[in-house]
Amino acid sequence: MTKRDYYEVLGLAKNAGEDEIKKSYRRLAMKYHPDRNTGEQAVEAEKMFKEAKEAYEMLSDPRKRAAYDQFGHAGVDPSAGGGPGFGGAGGGNFSDIFGDVFGDIFGGAAGARRGGPNRGADLRYNLELTLEEAVAGTTVKIRVPTLVGCTTCGGSGAKKGTTPKGCPTCGGVGQVRMQQGFFSVQQTCPRCHGRGKIIETPCASCHGQGRVQEHKTLSVKVPAGVDTGDRIRLAGEGEAGELGGPTGDLYVQVAVKAHHIFTREDAHLYCEVPITITTAALGGEMEVPTLHGKVMLKIPPGTQTGKLFRLRGKGVKPVRGGPEGDLLCRVAVETPVNLTQEQKELLHRFEQTLEPGSSRHNPQSQGWVDKAKGFFEKMGF
Known about the structure:
Shape: elongated
Structural class: alpha+beta
CATH topology of the largest domain: Helix Hairpins
Number of helices: 9
Strand content: 25-35%
């Protein structure tokens, strides 16, 4: 399941200050605290409480927040203490931060995760593609740092030949209940740290974690027509779960680089085509590029700047299906520069052949002049 954006979880803008983050978390945790929700609401409330806690833990730590702002969920990894990289945000226990905000209300930390295997975190990889690659589709190799199950201990964290034992303090549930005045507070077991099991002889390879850091090289097939914001899910390629739990997924986030000729909007492509004043006035043909090859664009006489010419089927075929888009060429009439004296004289002679004040040759210009005169008369200028 894809994690929600931490700012969205806390209902904050990305430039929120520390006080706003703490205040928002206090409000949500009060609302979803386990002691305030019972019966059918308890399961959903615990989920929301845990989500808010995780978001606060990341955003209240400047180093983790900076990594999250730059890399998203891929930049933070609570199990490793956070920091840039591809580790997703995982489960963590509630007592790490709950006591910091609510110690004055509940007298200490409360809430804990259930014992047993936890699913590995989902990861995100940002993949940049050229427009040509995105439109045609491609296959790319990516190298992803991640946590994988320790092969020495089989993910148990215990030395080969031994097994983790049930925690005698919490009875294997990962939580202990403490009486705090009028409140009965549930908190993470201090001995097994919420796992429900203890490892008497840790594995030398993973130091009792059951997971080790490795780099995986994966082949990602990018379908034709993807665009910025599209994601490709690679099931089971995320982090290995704790205590042998299921592996998370890897989400490849697509970003298409800016192109030097084309601009994309959904299935359509746009480009600007400069033409000379003579071509604009007399008409002609010119060669224009498309992602499918060269085509000839016919320019009719009297073409004005801003005129759009549509080349049907020369755009993008959407990745989710549907007809192929079009290429729309916007004409820009280019005024000549660095004229010689002879060229200037020719233009003056040409201008003298035009009928002054007539809309025959310059319909847009004459129409604008008439509108301006009417405006001046109305305003009394």
